[in-house]
Design brief:
globular, transmembrane, VanZ-like, VanZ family protein, membrane, transmembrane helix
């Protein structure tokens, strides 16, 4: 069963990455009025970090056989996060742009790169 799930994920990795991208975009631009707040200092930064880590891993996994393109993907995802922050400040009245959010976004993408790189290098060395 796990083998079938792995094969399904491998065949649909790009679709999963696109879905996660759309989800991050939607969550970045919708109003979060009425959503319960967590009483943890800078909790939204953790959310940004986790979202962009997941986004980064999904895109890097989708292009797992093309290591040379990974730095391009990382750069594009960081730019994507910057664009969404600008859109939050310009298109919405209920969200604000925050450079701290962008730092959290970029940190998530960079950690995704490092973890993915180490994971795939380890797997390649085992073959």
């Amino acid at each position: 069963m796990l083998k079938h799930i792995k094969q399904l994920l491998e065949r649909n990795a790009l679709i999963v990455a696109i879905f996660i991208t759309l989800l991050v975009t939607l969550l970045s631009l919708i109003s979060l009025k009425g959503v319960a707040k967590i009483n943890v200092s800078n909790s939204d930064k953790y959310g940004h970090f986790i979202a962009y880590f997941t986004l980064g891993v999904s895109w890097l996994y989708a292009f797992r056989s093309r290591f040379k393109r990974w730095l391009h993907i990382v750069a594009l995802l960081i730019i994507f996060g910057m664009v969404l922050e600008v859109l939050q400040g310009t298109l919405t009245t209920y969200r604000t742009a925050d450079w701290h959010d962008e730092v959290a976004n970029a940190s998530g993408v960079i950690l995704a790169y490092l973890v993915s790189y180490l994971w795939f290098i380890k797997r390649e060395n085992l073959k």
